[in-house]
């Protein structure tokens, strides 16, 4: 009897890159969540079209669920490529400009790309609680998507 075929590569990538506009909100949240949920079973990194400045609302939204992003250093895709290369199995893009950049990168790299349109909580106006609520919504949406996309055979984090 033959051994069962392994799942398709797209079903269980070994390495994932989360990309957004500035590597300060959506990609930071997504990478922190994926690391927490799947530990070392998937290599996770994040980058942006450009590197922005740290966002304290991201730190606050992640701290609420026990994750620490305070030491995150925003980096551009260009910086990431220079130091780590783009040997990822999958890039998940979270903004239109990041998606465009990732598709350009596939011309010279064997990189699968998935687009997860994700709202930008930095556009929320109002008081601190209203703004933080927008970040929580993005955080929770990303967690749900990550759990659904990578759940097959992956161990949970602590």
Automatic annotation (TrEMBL):
Write the record's keywords in alphabetical order, separated by commas. Answer: Arsenical resistance
Q: Which residues form the Phosphotyrosine protein phosphatase I domain?
A: 14-152
Matching InterPro entries, A to Z? Ptyr_pPase (IPR023485), Ptyr_pPase_sf (IPR036196)
Q: Does the keyword Cytoplasm apply?
A: no
What's an example GO BP annotation here?
A: response to arsenic-containing substance
Q: Is Oxidoreductase among the key words of this record?
A: no
An example of a Pfam family matching this protein is LMWPc
The protein in question is named ArsC family transcriptional regulator
Q: Which domain of life is it from?
A: Bacteria
- SUPFAM superfamilies, alphabetized: Phosphotyrosine protein phosphatases I (SSF52788)
- Species name for this entry? Azorhizobium oxalatiphilum
């Amino acid at each position: 009897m033959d051994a069962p075929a392994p799942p398709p590569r797209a079903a269980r990538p070994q390495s994932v890159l989360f990309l957004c506009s500035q590597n300060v909100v959506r990609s930071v949240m997504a990478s922190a969540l994926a690391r927490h949920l799947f530990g070392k079973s998937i290599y996770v990194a994040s980058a942006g079209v450009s590197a922005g400045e740290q966002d304290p609302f991201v730190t606050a939204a992640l701290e609420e669920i026990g994750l620490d992003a305070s030491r995150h250093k925003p980096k551009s895709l260009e910086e990431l490529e220079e130091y780590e290369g783009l040997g990822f199995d999958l890039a998940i893009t979270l903004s239109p400009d990041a998606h465009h950049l990732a598709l350009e990168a596939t011309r010279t790299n064997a990189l699968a790309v998935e687009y997860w349109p994700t709202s930008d909580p930095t556009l929320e106006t109002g008081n601190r609680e209203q703004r933080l609520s927008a970040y929580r919504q993005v955080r929770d949406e990303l967690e749900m998507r990550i759990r659904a996309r990578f759940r097959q055979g992956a161990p949970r984090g602590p």
